[in-house]
UniProtKB/TrEMBL annotation:
May play a role in septum formation. Belongs to the ParA family. It comes from Bifidobacterium mongoliense DSM 21395. The chain holds residues 51 to 330 of 330 of the full protein. It comes from the Bacteria. Residues 11-189 form the AAA domain. This is Chromosome partitioning protein. The lineage of its organism: Bacteria, Bacillati, Actinomycetota, Actinomycetes, Bifidobacteriales.
């Protein structure tokens, strides 16, 4: 396996897009696994009540298990909730729970409701002896309070874009939400990365979507695209990332390449993207 360059400080990345089925969870778990395989220390936080990221990384998330819901409501800590991924020594997961779907996060007063995840992550990083290179947060398909919590807890947003008709539809709304969070809660938040998923090289459409995204966001979109391949969709049913399930397949290879591209962006490209944003 190829070692990935380590960032000088922990990188916090939320994987977000309010559209369902665009590859958020697949991207979160497979990037996390690729980074971990390359030697990085990675924490995945599953903020989607569906718990697909937890499943895909082999983390138990039944009702007896403490979850990120308990962390947000102050009944548990990240330290006591995180579980190891069986396939990668340096990968850990804070599992989700279906309870999260009903979460109005009512324990907090309104002003603090957006900061629950941020505070929990900060407390964890202060108290733990472990050094993490990456914290990846898998978001549910919405722009609600859970996603706002994720955006307040990170410095980067990674947006997966499915290679299909209307790929860019809704992107404006997502960017607006991110700008709102920047303005009110988290001024250093940055859309650092876009990745085109379910790319089908046999179709002109996939290429057209890629070119369109590249035209609008030239510095942000990865050169690497994620191919549509059945192995990526099969892997979760075995409780595995595609990196562990089919390490030599085109899906795993693409996610390893994407992980390298993301790792190499630290920190100069990120600074360049941030400066470019400030000029606008
Ligand atoms: P989201 O988290 O945005 O809802 P998922 O990652 O769960 O999206 O992907 C939606 C569906 O598409 C899932 O069934 C997943 O297994 C499948 N899928 C995701 N990426 C790929 C891919 N590159 N090739 C084939 N199937 C994929
Ligand atoms: Mg998902």
């Amino acid at each position: 396996s190829i070692p990935v360059p380590k960032p000088s400080a922990t990188r916090y990345i939320a994987v977000a897009n309010q559209k369902g089925g665009v590859g958020k969870t697949s991207t979160t778990v497979n990037l996390a696994a690729a980074l971990a395989q390359g030697g990085a220390h990675v924490l995945v936080i599953d903020m989607d009540p569906q718990g697909n990221a937890s499943t895909a990384l082999g983390a138990p998330h039944d009702s007896g298990q403490s979850s990120v819901y308990d962390v947000l409501e102050g009944r548990s800590t990240i330290q006591d909730t995180k579980v190891p991924c069986p396939d990668f020594e340096t990968l850990q997961i804070v599992p989700s729970s279906i309870n999260l779907s009903g979460a109005e996060l009512e324990v907090a007063d309104l002003a603090k409701r957006t900061e629950l995840l941020h505070n929990a992550v900060e407390a964890f990083m202060r108290d733990t002896n472990e050094q993490f290179d990456y914290v990846l947060v898998d978001c549910p398909p919405s722009l609600g309070l859970l996603v706002i919590n994720a955006m307040c807890a990170v410095t980067e947003v990674l947006v997966p874009i499915q290679a299909e008709y209307y790929a860019l539809e809704g992107l404006g709304q997502l960017i607006n939400t991110i700008e709102l969070v920047q303005e009110h809660y988290n001024p250093i938040l940055l859309v650092s990365t876009m990745v085109v998923t379910m790319f089908d090289r046999r179709t002109l459409l996939s290429r057209e979507v890629y070119d369109e995204v590249k035209k609008h966001y030239p510095n942000i979109v990865l050169d690497t695209t994620i191919p549509r391949t059945v192995k990526i969709s099969e892997a979760p049913s075995f409780g595995k990332s595609v990196i562990a399930y089919d390490p030599r397949g085109i899906g795993a290879v693409a996610y390893v390449e994407a992980a390298l591209e993301i790792a190499r962006r630290s920190p100069s490209v990120l600074t360049a993207i941030a400066q470019k944003r400030r000029k606008h």
